[in-house]
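pasting for ref
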Amino acid sequence: MMSNASSIKSSEAAHFGAMAGDWWDPDGASKMLHRLNPVRLGYIRDRIDQHWQVDECKLRPLEGRTALDVGCGAGLLAEPLARMGAKVTALDAAPELITAAKAHADAARLAIDYRAIGVEAMGGQFDLITAMEVIEHVADPSAFVASLAARLAPGGLLILSTPNRTAWSRLLTITLAEGMGRIPRGTHHYDEFITPDEMTAMLGAVGMEVTDVEGIAFTPMRGLHLSEDVRLNYLVAARAA
């Protein structure tokens, strides 16, 4: 059942809202997102092609489709989705991020409907829904997943990403990345991380079928990259069962 309660944690919104000023700076507080975003985009494009049987060479594979990006930040993913042809709506809990996102999209001449609300307050349904590195920051992950599922149009595609709850992810994400200042301290809370099995169960409980799980791994030689290794971070694609 979808909950009407907001998934937003005010402390999380304030934490990320404080980064709005340099969100688009590849060397700023969100620099790890800039490194992660191309990896996520590669996966999303592949899932789009597979789900809708799109030619992988097509420049605008989402032409004529709607997309909802939940936890959009200042638009690092929403803008590429718009360039892929989608009519994009993007949500974030931090008004400061929505302000930055609108300004950047206007400068890029991209028409994106940005809103400073939680997904529970959103109406309508969408062909593609993305929620990248969001579920570990919400008040109730199960209710959040239910709200995402409720917004997915028949035949639609849902894609999420999140850190796995492992000793490896704690070491790389919190001990090293936050400890060395590569990610702002306090961004992650290990106890809020979700395993792939837990994610699959939450999706199944709201009538969703997981169609693919892929890891995001890190090595010094390759940096962040797609991998069968899900210990650090992973992406999940799902559809209505």
